[in-house]
Amino acid sequence: MPMLTDAIVAGLRADTPGCGGPQVHFNHAGASLSSRQTLAAITQHLELEARVGPMEAAVMAADGVARARAAAATLLNADSEEIAFATGGSAAWGTAIASLPPLRPGDRVLVGRQEWGGNLTTLRDKAARAGAVVELIPSLDDGRVDADALANQIDDRVRLISLTWGAANGGLVNDAAAVGRVARAAGVPYVIDAAQVVGQIPADVRALGCDMLKAPGRKHLRGPRGTALLYVRRDFLDKVAPAWLDVQSSPWPSDLGADHGPATIRDDARRLESAEASVALLLGLGSALDLALTLGVDNIRTRIHHLAQGLRQRLAALPGVTVRDIGDPETRSGLVSFTVDGLAGSAVRARLMEHGLTLGANGVPYTPLDMTARGLTEIARASVSYLTTEAELDRLANAVATLNR
Ligand SMILES: Cc1ncc(COP(=O)(O)O)c(C=O)c1O
């Protein structure tokens, strides 16, 4: 696997319509920039659909979708049978959670401090209706989830451990494998939200010890919006009862009448997948997955880590600017969070937009527990990709330097 040299990156940028124009993208954590090849995979299939009919085109593209599933499995060190596609991160996560056995009064659900707001709302609602509780796993001093403290929380009322692996509001990356060891030893279902990890940091579901894991296509994988991956561990499949069924998840049995009792559900992860999907987008996702595999996520990780650390150093050197990233500096992701004295994160974002720089601003709702624990109301978030260059980091730092003058 080649290292991502400047020459290779220049070629990848040339193949990316969003690179090299007047605007510089620092919002890869929101949604990244797709390659020309990914765009072509989508548009060519849409054209085929228009020419021969979408159902007919889907038959012609079945091998391509199967290859996309195999690529997703390779990326996660899973089997194809363990991969379902979904239309978005929350849809994948919600489908997974809705398929678990209902909570009962007194049940406990354990979450990390970086839990995504939407996940937390879903869990709290589910718990409130059942008379169960959602509890916080204690954190280490650096903000990451404390796996030893988690081990001490376990009792026979714990029904689920839910972990957002990489924070949405900064570079913190939890030790998801350490959490997995506790979950496995206790036999508690373990679900990972890997939205901010997959595609930028190697993710091996066997090493993580998780039962389910999801990630969207549009972020660090550079796939299209409207796509996501959901991994379900093979031996966990029989614990997963889809909230609804269709002709794919449970084909009508030919030998039985209408009163045949509980449905027979397919025995792979596609029991959680909708039969109706955008084939064009799945082919685009397949192209993005192929690119990630060709480049090697280890190589991607090395380059992103170097760039993000460089950006943190540049920003930390500026008066009135505070880098807000916590967690272990060695394992941080490409999300760089910062505040500028006297300016809200959204104002920072708006002002940088005037400089042709696109970045994110996160308030409390995306990561309520962590923002509240740290007394933060809003941060600016610049997220890098392996496509980012040192010159772009300089441009961002120079623009930030002008903000509070
Ligand atoms: C950690 C995390 N979880 C969940 C989501 C929501 O995913 P989606 O917008 O694909 O539903 C995001 C989106 O940014 C995220 O960062």
Structure in words:
This protein is α/β, with parallel strands linked by helices and 405 residues long. The chain is globular. Helix 4 packs across helix 10 and helix 7 packs parallel to helix 8 (176-186). The protein folds into 2 domains: 6-34 and 296-401, Alpha-Beta Complex (Aspartate Aminotransferase, domain 1), CATH 3.90.1150; 39-294, Aspartate Aminotransferase, domain 2 (3-Layer(aba) Sandwich). The strands form 2 sheets. A 7-stranded mixed β-sheet has the order 2-8-7-6-5-3-4, sandwiched between helices. It contains 14 helices and 12 strands. Residues 88-90, 116, 118, 164, 168, 193, 195-196, 216 line the site of pyridoxal-5'-phosphate.
In short:
The protein has 405 residues and is of the alpha/beta class. It contains 14 helices and twelve strands.
